UniProtKB/TrEMBL annotation:
Residues 54-381 form the GP-PDE domain. Belongs to the glycerophosphoryl diester phosphodiesterase family. Gene3D superfamilies: Phosphatidylinositol (PI) phosphodiesterase (3.20.20.190). Keywords: Glycerol metabolism, Hydrolase, Signal. CDD domains: GDPD_ScGlpQ1_like (cd08602). One of its GO terms (biological process) is lipid metabolic process. This is glycerophosphodiester phosphodiesterase. GO terms for cellular component: periplasmic space. GO terms for molecular function: glycerophosphodiester phosphodiesterase activity. Its EC number is 3.1.4.46.
Length: 387
C-alpha cells in the first residue's frame, strides 16, 4: 500500500551525493558527553516535538542511493543528515521474527528468484484483496531469509543502485535497535527510527500479530516510552489503537489516497475512507490515540488532471488544530515522482526541480517529510529555514 513506484517507468541517470550535507552530518555532533546528555541520548530527549522542523525522514533509508531497507541504506541516511530513519517497514517471518521489508512479497527486493532451493515457495496469495504472486516472508524462517541478499526495487529509475545488488542481507528489527544504539554512541547524537507495521490485519489472520511482537522487542530494549526515539506508524488505524494500549511511543496514522479505505476498515465493515479520516471529526478521533498523521503529499496539495500542484488543502491547519503533527510522504528527486510542473526535461531518470517542490510543500506548514534522498531534503530545509 502507498507506493508510487509501480506507476513509474524510466531510468535514473544522475545520482549526486550533495557534498555539504554529507560532510556536515557526522562532524558537528561529535563530543557530546555527560550523564544528562547520555540520558537524553538514551531516551530521545524531549520526544517527538524536540526534532528539527521540518523533520527530514530517510524513507526506507537513503533508498535513492542504496537498495532499500538494508543497514547500508539506513547508515547512509544518517551520514546524509536525516533526522530519522524509516528502519524499517516491518513484516514477520514464519518463526515469528520481525524483519525489514516493505511488503511480505520479497521477489522485487531480494535475490530469492535466483535461489533454486526456494523455487517451490513461489505462491499466489490475496494480500489485502490484491492477488499477489511471489515469495512471502511468512513462508520463510529467519535463517532462510538470512541466506538472501537485497536488490534494487526500481532498477529502471535507479540503475546505479544495482551496483550494490547482492551485497547486504535483510535486517531484523532487533538488529536495527542494536544498530540504533551503536550509531547513537558513535555519533554522540540520538539516532531516531520510524518503523512501520505492514499489513497488520493480514498477518494477524495468519497468527502472526505484529503489534505484540513490536511491543515486546521495544520493551526488551527499553524503547517503549513516550520519549523513546522510536515513532511507530501504520496505515491501519486499529493497529495504531492496539499499539496505543501496548506502548507509550509516539504513534502516527498513515493516510493514502482520499478514496482509499484502510484494510482493517474493510475487514471490520467500517465504511469510512481516508476522506472521512481527514475531516475535522476524523482528525479529532485520531488525536485521541495518536500523535501524528502521515498523509500522502496529494492530501496536502492536490494535483490537477495534468499532474500539476494546485491549492493546498486545509489538512495542515486542521491537523495542527487538534495537536497532530504531519509527516507526509514521499519526496523523490527523479522526474517521474515529482509533480508535473517540477519536472525538468523528459528523462524519466533525470532529477527535476525537487527544491521547488520542497519549497511548495514546506510552505504549507508540514512538520516533516519522508524522502528517498535525505541529503537533498536537508539542503531544502536549509533553504527554507534561511528564507
Ligand atoms: O511510511 C511512510 C511511507 O513510507 C508510506 O508509504 O508505502 O513507502 O511504506 P510506503
Ligand atoms: Ca513505510
Amino acid at each position: 500500500m502507498g507506493t508510487q513506484e509501480n506507476e513509474q517507468t524510466g531510468v535514473t541517470g544522475r545520482r549526486m551525493l550533495l557534498g555539504a550535507a554529507v560532510l556536515g552530518a557526522g562532524g558537528a555532533v561529535l563530543g557530546l558527553s555527560g550523564t544528562a546528555r547520555a540520558g537524553e541520548a538514551r531516551h530521545g530527549g524531549g520526544g517527538l516535538r524536540s526534532l528539527p522542523k521540518p523533520t527530514i525522514i530517510g524513507h526506507r533509508g537513503a533508498s535513492g542511493y542504496r537498495p532499500e531497507h538494508t543497514l547500508a541504506a539506513y547508515q547512509l541516511a544518517l551520514d546524509m543528515g536525516a533526522d530519522i530513519v524509516e528502519a524499517g517497514d516491518l513484516v514477520p517471518t514464519k518463526d515469528g521474527h520481525l524483519v525489514c521489508r516493505h511488503e511480505p512479497e520479497i521477489g522485487g527486493t531480494t535475490d530469492v528468484a535466483d535461489h533454486p532451493e526456494f523455487a517451490g515457495r513461489k505462491k499466489t496469495k490475496l494480500l489485502d484483496g490484491v492477488s499477489t504472486t511471489g515469495w512471502f516472508t511468512e513462508d520463510f524462517t529467519l535463517a532462510e531469509l538470512k541466506t538472501l541478499r537485497a536488490i534494487e526495487r526500481i532498477p529502471a529509475n535507479r540503475p546505479h543502485n544495482t551496483l550494490y545488488n547482492g551485497r547486504w542481507e535483510i535486517p531484523t528489527f532487533e538488529e536495527v535497535l542494536k544498530w540504533q544504539d551503536e550509531q547513537t554512541r558513535r555519533r554522540g547524537k540520538q539516532v531516531w527510527i520510524y518503523p512501520e507495521l505492514k499489513h497488520p490485519t493480514y498477518f494477524r489472520k495468519l497468527g502472526l500479530g505484529l503489534e505484540e511482537r513490536v511491543a515486546k522487542v521495544l520493551h526488551k530494549h527499553g524503547k517503549d516510552r513516550r520519549n523513546s526515539p522510536v515513532i511507530l506508524q501504520s496505515f491501519e488505524p486499529t493497529s495504531i489503537q492496539r499499539l496505543n494500549k501496548l506502548v507509550d511511543n509516539p504513534l502516527v496514522v498513515l493516510l493514502s489516497a482520499a478514496n482509499d479505505r484502510p484494510w482493517d476498515f474493510v475487514e471490520t465493515g467500517d465504511p469510512r475512507t481516508v476522506a472521512d479520516l481527514v475531516k475535522p471529526s476524523g482528525l479529532r478521533e485520531i488525536a485521541s490515540y495518536a500523535q501524528g498523521i502521515g498523509p500522502t503529499l496529494d492530501l496536502i496539495i492536490p494535483k490537477d488532471a495534468k499532474g500539476n500542484l494546485t491549492t493546498p488543502t486545509t489538512l495542515v491547519a486542521d491537523a495542527h488544530k487538534v495537536g497532530l503533527v504531519l509527516h507526509p510522504w514521499t519526496l523523490r528527486n527523479e522526474n517521474p515522482f515529482l509533480p508535473a510542473n517540477f519536472r525538468k526535461g523528459t528523462g524519466a531518470d533525470a532529477y527535476g526541480d525537487v527544491f521547488g517542490a520542497y519549497k511548495a510543500y514546506f510552505a504549507t506548514g508540514i512538520d516533516g517529510v519522508f524522502t528517498d534522498q535525505p541529503d537533498t531534503g536537508v539542503l531544502a530545509r536549509e533553504d527554507f529555514v534561511n528564507g
